[in-house]
Amino acid sequence: MADSVTTAGAVYVLDALAVAGSAFVLVWSTVPGSRDSALGVLVIALTALLLVGLTVALARLGSRPLPAIPAPLLWLPLLGAALVTSWHLLAGRELGPAETAVALGLALLVMLRQSFTGLDNVRLVRELQESQDRLRAQAYHDSLTGLANRALFDQRLRRAIRGGRPLGLIFCDLDDFKAVNDRLGHNAGDEVLRAVAGRLRACVRPMDTVARLGGDEFAILMEDAAESPDVIGNRILGAVGKPFQLEHRGRATRVLVGASVGVAVLDKVDQDASPESLLARVDQAMYAAKRRGKNQLVTFRHGTPDSPDPRYLPLPDPEAPPPNSVPALAPNPVLAPATGPIPRNGTSSTMHPVTPAAQYRASGQARPEPPRPPATEEELKAQERARLTAAAQRSVERSLAEYQALEKESERREAERAAAERRAAEALQIEAEVRAGTRPEAEVIPLSRAVDLRAQKQAAEAEAAAETLQIEAAEAEAVEAEAVEATRRAKNAAESQAAAAPSTQPRNAGPVSEAETLQRAEQLAALSSDHISVLYRPVLSLRTGQLTALAAAVRWQHPVHGPMPVDALMSAAEQAGLRRPLEERLLDSICSALALLRKAPDWDELTAHVPLPTLYLADDRLVTVLERTLRRHDLPGSALVLQITEDGPSPDLNAAARVLGRVRALGVSLGLEAFGAGPGDLGFLTRLPIDNLTLHRSLAAAEPGSRSEAVLAGTIAMTPGLKLTLIADGVSHQVQADRLHTLGVDLAQGPLYGEPVPLPELDLLHL
After folding, report:
1. Of 15, 175, 208, 216, which residue is the catalytic one?
2. In the chain, what are the helix, strand and coil shares in percent, each to the nearest 5?
3. Is 216 a catalytic residue?
4. End residue of a domain, out of 77, 106, 135
5. Helices and strands counted in the chain (H then E)
6. What is the pLDDT of residues 560-598, one digit of tens each?
7. Residue 726: its pLDDT value, please?
8. What is the mean pLDDT of residues 87-101?
9. Which of 2, 73, 492, 767 is least enclosed, having the fewest CB within 10 Å?
10. 205 and 110, same structural domain?
11. Closest CA to 673 of 651, 653, 655, 691
12. Nearest-CA neighbor of 453 among 493, 482, 401?
């Protein structure tokens, strides 16, 4: 615009000078005495200046578009000056120096003016060409991605069909793209669309047409492609299925989207097809892919008797039904998957019987577009649920057979262990009957002191209750050794009681009452694995927003009292003598789930945070259990983080430091749970090899200026020197997360990222 104003302004100034010079010549030549009169010269000069000012004022340079001044009005004085000068020359009158100079100046002005006019015309032509190019690009290309739009795609598709060459058509629709816009905003959605466009271009040749038809729908037209459209479609599935890295609220965010791909092939034998019919076929193939569970590829091919490939399933001709009594094809055409043939006359749960290809002939008539079945609200909800579980299911399918074999082996070993326990219980029973003299076939041995057999009975009941815990993949030798050890301890306890008891039976040493027996049976039943489960919640990095770990927690659903706290569970297990087997089973279950998840792409470094009660800090058997469990599930020590929980008496810190040092040697990290709420936090922190601190939710939610904030600031200040990782617990909103990240907290967990849920309900795709 500035160049236009400058060029036009220069033309106006030149016109003004030309008019002024022409007026000077006219007055000088026609007014008598003007050459000798000073007043005449002054009038001539003032007239010229007045005309210059008037012309420049009309131009209004630099303000608004220049007004159009009629060209004859500007050049009329110049024409008059030229006529007067020519008349004087023809009359034999010589021009004076002033007249000659003015005439030459006018000629120079005319040439300059025409030069500027020519430049202006060139500029106008260039702007017109650029405007036409922009209009053409807007008319045939998508403004967001730069791909061809529907108009250009239809034009090239019609031209390709007229060319008579084989072509392939791919229709790609992003799965649940609306969730990206809803969660991250439309700007993030636009970035994903641009990235998808780039990946689609990379999957095909430069001469192939890639178009965005609207929203999240893309189409690809390939002519004389060296590769099969099925191969290219699978390549597109892999390319679109890779994570997209976006910037969301100043942090790197990974977005996963899938695609449903439909493929249609036009062979030389089907040159009567129209663009509408081809688009209808590929559109139906795409919707069939969505019905298969999304992130799938379905191919629709048109066949003739000359195409014996059973995947080439024909469209029915409504004007010419098949001559034989074979069942007719359903209104919707059959869609063939990209892999595996479909029987010609076979049936399935979703397809009608297929008429043999030889019964249909190309009639040359236009085939009607099959109607697209509308998706109901229930189908949309089902598709959403399927999308959330598809990725996790694919990651564990490869290990399912191995896992089932492991379960069968565990059941076999459990049966062997149960048989060993029954034999031990029978031995105890026989011994008790012999001591009591109630076994008829045994020799009665007189005893000088009464023996209380309740210890044996309780030990036998405790060992029998372990059968309900179903320890997965436990080694039969170790379990049987535990049973023998428990039997030996029970015998020693009984002998000690017999040695210390008086010569007569105490009044309160009678048999256990029926009520106590029922209460204990109820307690043991409540400790079965049917009522105990492991919950998981995500732990995310505040810097990158990526999932780094899963924090495990235990849920106890009491069959009578309903949900019970973990402390009550451990207390009941302690009373039953089953706390150690229970916690070993929970650790085994957590490692089993973690091993399966780490086999999935991008989760090979996922870790699990496992609660560790203070009861086991000084127990040497902790190292043995960890070694056995990690080896069983082929996990490195770095996959586990033991979170110390203060739910019992304080241990011997010297012994605990020795045991935990051996744990660290396995590669297992150690953390301190609920830091800031327990009285022994600083003692643990200074004496034990701690790697991370999980801040109590009261510190994570500290208000500015409060004492809690001062404690939080002090904790953060000491972490660099101790090389600690900080984890904030109870993060409930984004403002809180941003503030903790600014203060220097590394990881976070809480309602903002997800509540503790069972593993199948954990939504790992949108973290």
Report:
1. 216
2. 55, 15, 35
3. yes
4. 135
5. 22, 17
6. 777 777 777 777 777 777 778 888 888 999 999 999 888
7. 94
8. 67
9. 2
10. no
11. 691
12. 493
